[in-house]
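Reopening this ticket.

The earlier resolution said the output was attached, but the attachment link was broken on my side. Pasting everything inline this time so it's all in one place.
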Amino acid sequence: MSEEVERLRQDLRDIRIFCGRYFPFVVIPLSYVRIVASRDVPSAGVDERGVLCINPDWWNELDVEEKRFVAIHECLHVVLCHPFRRKGFDPIIYNIAADGKINDSIREASVTGVEYGKGDNVTLEKISQQTGINVDVLRKMSTEEIARELEDRAAKQASVAKGAECERDLLDGAVEGEVVQEGDKSVAGKASAKELEREWKRILERARDFAKQAGNMPAALERAVKEVLEVKPPWQLIVRFGIKNHSKEDSSFAYPSRRGDEYPGYYGYRYSVWCLVDCSGSISEEELRYFLGIVKFEARKADVYVIPWDAESYEVLKATKPAEVARKVAPKMKGGGGTVIAPALIKVYSLMRAGDAVIVLTDGDIRDAEEEKTKSLFRKVSAKAGFAMLGYTHKPVEAPGFATARIDFRGDLNG
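Inline output:
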């Protein structure tokens, strides 16, 4: 296979030169990745160690533009740590989500001379057709969020895979073959997945900085990089610190201090939290129970006002202690209709006091979320609130002025 391997090396050298001019983000990762030639893989892919594996017979059938596309695509899988991030997901589903994000990044870069005409590529448009999620929303979702959405719609899994004609390129196990490129020792010498992921994150930072210095960093690729490098705190911490920063505290010698009797002790005032709970037909019983658990937690230190909503807003339900959530709030939760949030936002804005906290709990399938009227209402409520947050279980929502975070209610329930 030596002659074929040498031809592969020359092709990859040419691709690195091409990327240096037109797709600089890939230059460093493509220089660092270990590459092997193997007929054990049908085409090309990345194994569990982040090794790029290429079938030389298949490769030789590609034209120049297709070779560039494949090298860039597979290299992005590695540097975005997809082999290490896919743990816990259905491998086919995660591969589809990752391919959709990568192909969208390549397309947005609008690089002439990079094209793949073999088969039917996975695109966010195709994922949108299968899930019903707007493409612009999918672009804002992480690979994991898209994969979870596809898994939650498991009945459509077969049609997603068939419609995209997806061939897995995130490979199981370790693939051996004739070495085309040894790879940098920083990654080639690492044994564990955690070590490899840590090193590839460092390489990812360098690739991002190099692309920015070259003035060529597409927005879609920037979003994909942030998925890996930005550490988002769990939504519980966002709520706790957000409310704490806007709650009022005072001190008095009537309260003991941990610092000693010569110091006054701190005490806090009860604050008000408005919880807008999505009760539409798309909300499962499991989700609703979890939402009410959040309400119950807030009722420990706050006066909680719950507004159930679907296509309209319903009676305001008040709880001043956790036990009242089960006794007074849960039995009166109603809904089951469509999902329109504007009436609930109008109601909370008219009833809340300046400085109150507002928490919206939803699955994210909000019909009027993209309407300018709704966005304006989000802005008005957040401007009046001391703290405003929207937690979603499935689909991200653009809520101007609100902190947003995904609620992994299944993970929390199982953990």
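Reporter confirms the inline version is readable. The longest helix spans residues 2-22. The two ends are 50 Å apart (CA to CA).
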